[in-house]
């Protein structure tokens, strides 16, 4: 006699439905024993399990109908593996897309949509001050200069062989903003721990409608859908990064500059970044401000953010135990500019 089996989907136990945390399909099957109270508590409090609800269609456990299940056999590391399999596209498909993008051939609208959804799931787990390990290659504005990006990878090494940190402004001005930002997002999804992408002031709905990215999306796709997928994704990009090494050298990285409203890294960590770049305020300042030869704070000629002097940077570094501030946002003809405590 054949044993009849069914699949049990795990879903995140909600406060009012703790005893229905296990569902059995098909509908005519009987409900199996729910979580033991002790394990239920562990699941409810574990940060590693928050994603179970979202991937329940992928997480199955086969049992005989009516049989009790010992959920203690489901180890957290196995669940994490299932999560990766459920939320990430196949590596082979991603590798194909990356190779296509390296030839400056943009993806289909459907592929971009799926890629942005995968990237959003990754970026949701990252912080306003995203930690980055050494060694790392730090890069400034790309602005749609696709072939400059390819040359950068040729000189510095391809991901994942080289660890990269990009400090924003991937789109606008250049002719290949679509290919540039899509390649960086694809690399982020494929090698999430080897590439960090921060938000710049051009990763914004308003700015991209003025400086070219919106029009490029219309020209290449015939509609604004791809522009919307990317600008929605931009809301999730980390605002800053903190590079650490074993000898306590801390490098604070961001696109623009400091803010009079933000004295500490904890102030930055407390910001709600998942929004369009505001016209003013601390989040705006991080993406728009510039250093200045004059001391103190000044009015920015850009119309957003502030200028800040060497004294402001020194005080911020001292307060937060930083060695150096690394930023982008401005053109320097030498490729980089060393200014004592600001690069």
UniProtKB/TrEMBL annotation:
Q: Which InterPro entries match?
A: Calcineurin-like_PHP, Metallo-depent_PP-like, PPA2-like, Ser/Thr-sp_prot-phosphatase
SUPFAM superfamilies registered for this protein in UniProt? Metallo-dependent phosphatases
Q: Which SMART domains match?
A: PP2Ac
Q: Which UniProt keywords apply?
A: Hydrolase, Manganese, Metal-binding
Q: Where are the transmembrane segments?
A: none
This entry's Enzyme Commission designation comes to 3.1.3.16
Q: Which reaction does it catalyse?
A: O-phospho-L-threonyl-[protein] + H2O = L-threonyl-[protein] + phosphate
Query: GO MF annotations for this entry?
Result: metal ion binding; protein serine/threonine phosphatase activity
For the protein in the UniProt heading, the enzyme class is: hydrolase
Signal sequence coordinates: none
Question: What is the similarity comment for this entry?
Answer: Belongs to the PPP phosphatase family. PP-2A subfamily.
Q: What is this protein called?
A: Serine/threonine-protein phosphatase
């Amino acid at each position: 006699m054949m044993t009849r089996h069914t699949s049990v989907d795990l879903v995140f136990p909600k406060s009012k439905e703790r005893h229905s945390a296990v569902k059995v399909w098909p509908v005519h099957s009987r409900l199996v024993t729910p979580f033991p109270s002790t394990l239920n508590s562990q699941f409810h409090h574990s940060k590693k399990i928050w994603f179970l609800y979202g991937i329940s269609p992928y997480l199955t456990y086969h049992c005989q109908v009516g049989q009790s299940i010992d959920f203690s056999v489901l180890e957290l590391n196995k669940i994490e593996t299932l999560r990766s399999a459920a939320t990430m596209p196949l590596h082979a498909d991603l590798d194909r897309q990356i190779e296509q993008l390296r030839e400056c051939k943009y993806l289909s609208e459907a592929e971009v949509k799926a890629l942005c959804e995968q990237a959003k799931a990754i970026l949701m787990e990252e912080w306003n001050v995203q930690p980055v390990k050494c060694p790392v290659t730090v890069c400034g504005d790309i602005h749609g200069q696709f072939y400059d990006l390819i040359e950068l990878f040729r000189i510095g090494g391809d991901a994942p062989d080289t660890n990269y940190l990009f400090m924003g402004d991937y789109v606008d001005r250049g002719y290949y903003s679509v290919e540039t930002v899509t390649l960086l997002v694809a690399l982020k999804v494929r090698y999430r721990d080897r590439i960090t992408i921060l938000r710049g002031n051009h990763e914004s709905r308003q700015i991209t409608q003025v400086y070219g990215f919106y029009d490029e999306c219309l020209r290449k796709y015939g509609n604004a859908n791809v522009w919307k997928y990317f600008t929605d994704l931009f809301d999730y990009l980390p605002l800053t990064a903190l590079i650490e090494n074993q000898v306590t050298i801390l490098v604070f990285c961001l696109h623009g500059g400091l803010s009079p409203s933000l004295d500490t890294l904890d102030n930055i960590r407390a910001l709600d970044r998942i929004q369009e770049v505001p016209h003013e305020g601390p989040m705006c300042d991080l993406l728009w401000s510039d250093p200045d030869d004059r001391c103190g704070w000044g009015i920015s000629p850009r119309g957003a953010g502030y200028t800040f002097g060497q004294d402001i940077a020194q005080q911020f570094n001292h307060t937060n135990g930083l060695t150096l501030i690394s930023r982008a946002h401005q053109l320097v003809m030498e490729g980089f500019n060393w200014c004592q405590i600001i690069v």
